[in-house]
Amino acid sequence: MRSLVDSHPDPYAGFGGVIGFWRRVAETRDALPDGGATAAGFLSLLRPLVAGVRDAHTTILPANRAYDAEPAASLGLEWDVDADGLHVAAAYEEGNRGLLGARLRAVKGVPAGRLADRMRELTARDNEYGNLVNLARALRDPALVAELAGDTDPVVVAVEPGGSVPLTPRRWAGSARIARPSTLDLPAVGPHGIAWRMLDDVGYLRFGRLLGYREAFEYARAAGIRWLLAERLPDTLRRLGTDPIPSTVDDQIAAVPTACGTIGALVSAMAAAGSRRLVVDLRHCPGGNSLVATVLALLLYGRDALLDVDEGYQIPPYSPLYAATHDGRSPAYGYDFGAERDWLRARADPAVRRRRNAAGLAELRDASPSLAAYPESLAGQPLRPTVAVVVDAFTFSAGVDIALMVLRLGATLVGVPPARAPNCFIDTVPYRLDHTGPHGTVSFRYSLAFPADPARGRVLTPHHAKEAGNDPDGTVRQALRHLARSA
């Protein structure tokens, strides 16, 4: 509990206050069996406590599960989320091809609505779309299915259409992913996490995991974020196929491709084609480092456009855990309300915002040599395209930061509201329970993208909701139609 209480901006809010929090801690402690608990049993007791914080960035995982790893065995179905609940997006067994698009109705006789209610008690979320994302992921994990629907065999899933279907947990590694065909030929993001293509005369930019670009690690080096450099940087190089991995951190960072180079190549291609329309695809973007949002905005719109952007503000509580994971570079322990005061002053005097934003851009350029060395305008003047951003419920963390950045610069949003709330707890430090093994992350900032609009801060609602249809890339089609109308 020490990591949570010391590091989280407000661990008590989800419990109604300090007493409610410590009451739940006491209840969890009292629920421990006299003879001790198994690792799985102990984790089951801790899940509701962590979920009660109601912060999607504060997590707990089994001792042997990496932060982004799939379960060793799964039930062989992937689920997608929209306003009506969950539907089957993909299968790994030919016999289940007919389930594609079917709606979830029940698991082991437990109705979908009841499963969603139980999910709130097991995993934290920012909003109800986040809870459905958690449920979609849980239904791939036999251990969580047992907690949600009872530890009985077999696992029978009821869908509509399709009826009741028995599923057997197994390893699906190497099995072909079966999904409905797309009407578009879109690039895969790959381990770099960023890919682009021209779709006729429209630029298309896709983001996946946002820890495969060099600027993120340059920033981590400048900020002294040791754990990210020690854990995530080698993971990135392995995904990129770098062999051998360089011995020094500086050489490891230099081996990672830049976001500036990838996005800059798209901007150059658009300028050469005379294109002023762009689709930014953030579906299933799980986040990572949000510096790429600034890179994108700089290369599309230029520095001057960013000076007037109102990004809201953040409140960090500096703690011993923060200092330990950030190379000791922590101010005096406690809450820092400086950004909030600056934001309030900027509401009355726009010049304050311009100075604040200029200082922030200068700080990022100082932290990232790749960003500092890259020209802000690749075509003599900023491209300033008309942008449509595609989001889904799985758009999370830094993915939402990208959407928010271009939204403030005039972009249109298409799709399903993301799981991450615009006003949320964000930025994490890792922890591990030394004696029992479960590990996870704790948020250390309170971020308000819309400080004056709490309702908008809970759910980022697209301008155009996802239309019904069988095309898995239908929302990209929607975005292209919107851009065609706006031309």
**Strand percent estimate:** 15-25%
Radius of gyration from CA coordinates: 23 Å
Model regions low in confidence, pLDDT < 50 over at least 5 residues: none
Q: Give a count of the beta strands, DSSP E runs of length 2 or more.
A: 17
The chain-level structural class is alpha/beta
Q: Note the gap between the termini.
A: 55 Å
Largest sheet: 6 strands, mixed
Tally of helical segments: 19
Strand order of the largest sheet: 7-8-9-13-14-17
Rounded average pLDDT:
91
Helicity, as a percent range? 25-40%
Q: What best-fitting shape do the alpha-carbon axes yield?
A: globular
Protein name: Peptidase family S41
Organism: Actinocatenispora rupis
InterPro entries: ClpP/crotonase-like_dom_sf (IPR029045)
What this model shows, in words?
This is Peptidase family S41. InterPro entries: ClpP/crotonase-like_dom_sf (IPR029045). It is a single chain. With 487 residues, this protein is α/β, with parallel strands linked by helices. Helix content is 39%, strand content 18%. The chain is built from 19 helices and 17 strands. It has helices at residues 2-7, 18-30, 39-51, 112-120, 128-138, 142-149, 214-223, 226-240, 249-254, 259-273, 291-301, 303-306, 320-325, 338-348, 350-367, 369-373, 398-408, 454-458, 474-486; strands at 77-82, 85-91, 103-107, 110-111, 155-160, 163-167, 194-199, 202-207, 277-281, 313-315, 317-318, 334-335, 386-391, 412-415, 423-432, 439-448, 464-465. The strands form five sheets. It has a six-stranded mixed sheet with strand order 7-8-9-13-14-17, with helices on both faces. The protein has a four-stranded antiparallel sheet with strand order 4-3-5-6. The protein is globular. The N and C termini lie far apart (55 Å). The relative contact order is 0.14.
